[in-house]
Write a structure and sequence with these properties.
By secondary structure, the chain is of the alpha+beta class. It contains 5 helices and 7 strands.
């Protein structure tokens, strides 16, 4: 009995992918050799019809799953680089952020609709970092000069409890929720206001 060679099998698989709806036939000749073709075997000798259709929904689902896995692996690679460099990155989890930055100097937590939010402030390498998290994932950060020391702010009065509450209200307004730059700026003001008191 003669088995088909590997190149022939590869060619058949490629043909089946490129022509998913075409019928395929395996034909056995009187001498025992096998052939594969799209037309029925002559005189029906040793004919077997093969179902070579590709399950398109399953193939698409597998492809989407591989794409998600590849995206997650790429994200993890970038996160490792950010941790090694000691800097925050959007899409980091809180644990990954702690690995990169250590403990924050200041923090505040809140609720925006159904989402929990955290605003953290770090100082690292002579720079300040304001980091915003939503549901435990970094959604925005800003690298700034560190704020002046409290002694330098002695001439300026600290915000009142009412002013702090106004900032909190601005953060939670529906019109401001999807404006990430504004949210980051308001969160900076809130952290600085709370640190001053």
């Amino acid at each position: 009995m003669h088995a088909p060679s590997l190149p022939l099998l590869i060619l058949l698989l490629l043909a089946s992918v490129s022509l998913p709806a075409a019928a395929q036939y395996r034909c056995r000749a009187p001498d025992g050799s096998l052939s594969f073709q799209q037309n029925p075997c002559p005189d029906g000798h040793g004919q077997q019809k093969l179902d070579m259709r590709v399950d398109q929904p399953a193939a698409a689902a597998a492809s989407a799953d591989y794409s998600r896995q590849l995206s997650e692996l790429e994200r993890q690679r970038k996160v490792r680089e950010a941790i090694m460099a000691g800097r925050p990155m959007v899409s980091m989890t809180r644990a990954e952020l702690d690995s990169a930055m250590g403990s924050p100097l200041r923090s505040s937590s809140g609720q925006v609709g159904p989402d929990s939010t955290d605003q953290l402030y770090y100082q690292r390498g002579g720079r300040g970092f304001y980091v915003s998290l939503r549901n435990g994932v970094v959604v925005a950060f800003d690298d700034v000069d560190p704020p002046p020391a409290r002694a330098a702010q002695a001439g300026k009065p600290c915000p009142s409890a009412r002013e702090i509450r106004d900032i909190e209200i601005d953060i939670s307004k529906l019109a401001n929720r999807d404006n990430k730059p504004l949210q980051l700026e308001l969160n900076k003001r809130l952290l600085d206001a709370r640190a001053c008191r």
